[in-house]
Specification:
Largest sheet: none
Structural class: mainly alpha
Strand content: under 5%
Distance between the termini: 34 Å
Number of domains: 1
Shape: globular
Keywords: Coiled coil
Oligomer: single chain
Number of helices: 5
Length: about 150
């Protein structure tokens, strides 16, 4: 994993399965983030590297219901995901803005944010209803579903 793939593909290491070094927390995290996992992953990539331990360290983990499960059949879930992704991008931009040679990543994030805001505006302001079949395709990525919204209504 590198900075580019992390930002472009919305990757991150889930906090429930990660250990972070203390120096990643020396600078406070923005309070508007929906979760800290992705920003801490970005900080680790900027400041060094990420290592993986290729063995089972946890026997069982009980989920708390906090999920990006896109099989839920409600437009409100997609609105929450869009808003959360926009806030995460804002956190990335805030993090990268004080670091040299990050302009290309900031520009990429601003383009992503504009796309997500447009999709959100389509669903909120224009009150379009998503077609029922939109929720049936669990194998289609969230990004591709957003493209569907964007290109269908613009």
């Amino acid at each position: 994993m590198n900075i580019h793939s992390h930002l472009l593909n919305d990757l991150g290491i889930l906090g429930c399965s990660a250990a972070f070094r203390k120096f990643l927390l020396e600078k406070p995290l923005p309070d508007f983030l929906p979760s800290e996992d992705k920003l801490l992953t970005l900080r680790a990539l900027i400041n060094g590297k990420i290592g993986f331990i290729n063995e089972k360290l946890v026997k069982y983990r009980l989920g708390t219901g906090i999920s990006n499960n896109l099989s839920k059949k409600e437009s409100s879930e997609y609105l929450k995901l869009l808003k959360g992704r926009i806030l995460t991008i804002d956190g990335y931009i805030s993090e990268l803005s004080n670091i040299n040679n990050m302009e290309k990543y900031i520009a990429l994030l601003k383009r992503q944010r504009k796309f997500l805001e447009s999709s959100l505006q389509i669903l909120q302001d224009k009150k379009y209803r998503l077609p029922d079949f939109y929720f049936d395709f669990k194998n289609i990525s969230f990004r591709d579903k957003l493209k569907f919204i964007y290109y269908r209504y613009f």
